[in-house]
Amino acid sequence: MTVETVKPEDIEKRSFEIIENELKAEGIILPEKEDLIIRRCIHTSADFDYAKTLRFSEGAVDICKELIRGGADIITDTNMAKTGISEKTLSGFGGVIRCFMADAEVAKEAKERGITRAAVSMEKAAKLPGKKIFAVGNAPTALIRLYEMYKEENFRPDFIIGVPVGFVNVEAAKELIMSTDIPFIINEGRKGGSTIAAAICNALLYQMKGQAR
After folding, report:
1. In CATH, what number is assigned to the domain containing residue 68?
2. Residue 101 domain-assigned?
3. Which of 209, 207, 173, 210 is nearest to 34 (CA)?
4. Domain count, the chain
5. Tens digit of pLDDT for each residue in 189-198?
6. pTM higher than 0.90, yes or no?
């Protein structure tokens, strides 16, 4: 292998050129509306499996963009995802990014009830006014709690980006959300993570702002 000389400002562009070439070599043609989301997940992870495992409910991209355009907030299950999402771009549409994982009251309640902070965070977020996009990249228990509230408490999330990573209940949690009528973008299987959740959000935001790359 030889080392390429690439200007710092051209690194991302070159990365997407490599992705394009490898997709073509594999004969993979991405759906038009989901294309940039999938590419950004591949760019973030260097994992081409996302071209095969990302799942979109009917009209998911348009629904999520309309929510963002209407000022919806994005709720994350990690501060890493919160930090990774372009807050400036989202705020231009009137939304804010929220994460309650470090909230002292959330931690206290989770300990008292013997459940995860992620689950309690979803409960706290559900009580907020306005439209909400839940971007879950770490905790399957967050998805499970959203599903339980949907089934038992007449709460329907406006949109779920469900890409938790790991082994325990990860696949089952994703399947629960996909069994509902909640609009979603979900990665099947064990792969995902906070960086993937942020990448999906940013792909939508950049596309809406006219900065998709």
Report:
1. 3.40.50.10230
2. yes
3. 207
4. 1
5. 999 999 999 9
6. yes
CA 128, 100, 59, 149 dihedral sign is negative
Q: What is the pLDDT of residues 53-63, one digit of tens each?
A: 999 999 999 99
The helix (run of H) or strand (run of E) holding residue 122 is: helix 117-126
| Within-domain flag for 81 | yes
Range of the domain at 119: 54-209
Residue type, 11: I
Q: Residue 123 falls within a domain, yes or no?
A: yes
Catalytic site residue 97? no
**Which of 40, 43, 145, 191 is an active site residue?**
43
Residues 6+ apart with CB under 8 A from 120: 100, 106, 109, 110, 113
Residue 45 within any structural domain of the chain: no
Mean pLDDT (the chain) is 94
